[in-house]
Amino acid sequence: MTFEELITSGALRPFKGGVIDGSVDTSLPLVAHNIKTLKVDIAANQQVRLVVAYTKSCQAAVEINLAENSSLELVEVYLADSYANITVNQAENSRCKSLVALLSSSNATYTYALKGCNAENAFDALFIAVESEHATLNLNTRHLVSDCRSTSLVKGISADRATGEFHGLVYVAPDAQRTDAQQQNRNIELDNSHIVALPQLEIYADDVRCSHGSTVGYSDAEAIFYMRQRGISEADARRLQIEGFVQDVVSRCHMEPVCAFVHEMVSDKLSKI
Q1: pLDDT of residue 224
Q2: Has residue 205 been placed in a domain?
Q3: Quick count: other Cβ atoms within 10 Å of Cβ 47?
Q4: Domain count across the chain
Q5: Contact (Cβ atoms closer than 8 angstroms) between residue 188 and residue 245
Q6: Is 261:5 a contact under the CB 8 Å cutoff?
Q7: For residue 253, is it within any domain?
Q8: Does a structural domain hold residue 41?
Q9: CA separation for the pair 123, 33 (Å, rounded)
Q10: Which of 49, 112, 172, 237 pairs with 41 at a CA distance of 20 to 30 A?
Q11: Which domain holds residue 115?
């Protein structure tokens, strides 16, 4: 199924931006497709599911503002070479959960500004680059006030002659006491490909709980050997290992039928490795 077919199936509601309050029907996930600009203001106490997809090359700017006690579940899928800049501003007690699948030669920058106390942010992302593609994911999580929490898990795979990049910054302002920020990045390089991983913490408060970690490695030769001893071919063993690696991110999508589409697109991308 193509993304266009998913839209015409009636499972998603087309959305061009604006204020989302009690007058907007949010019973179905909202969708913005191949947009150049998108501004969304989510009113207090609203719960929104939003899908943004890029199936044609484009440059996009997205701004999302969450008012007090609002929540957003955001899924973004890159299937064509694109350049996107996404900014999310969170007020007090707001919740934002994002899942990003970067499956093309794209450059995506995500900035999350936690501006209200007790805001929470969860970011899960996967990038896969094959052949001569160059995929870049930039993440900037800014803790500007006290008592906020953020988690991020980014996984990357490169193969052939491709290049992948992850640049991750967690910024904690001087007044952002009792911040809890956790950032993880895991990557697999295959063939003659290359991945650059640059996680960073910039902390100006003293009462915080912050950590980050990043690894760049190859496929697990011992695990592949183990599977081959049980009659699995080397190619199938490597495929099973990579599928298990990405599943940790993909399984965090709970917005159907979008998640089934993401699974399908990720599987299609992995078949090219």
Answers
A1: 55
A2: yes
A3: 13
A4: 1
A5: yes
A6: no
A7: no
A8: yes
A9: 21
A10: 172
A11: 3-218
pLDDT in tens, 119-149: 999 999 999 999 999 999 999 999 999 999 9
Within a domain: residue 266? no
Distance CA 113, CA 90 (A): 6
| 198 Cβ neighbours under 8 A, 6+ residues apart | 165, 166, 167, 168, 214
The CA distance from 48 to 41, in Å, is: 11
For residue range 176-232, list pLDDT tens digits in order.
999 999 999 999 998 899 999 999 999 999 999 999 888 876 655 555 554 555 666
Query: Which of 53-62, 239-248, 249-258 has the highest mean predicted lDDT (pLDDT)?
Result: 53-62
For the chain, report the end-to-end CA distance as a whole number of angstroms: 21
pTM: 0.92
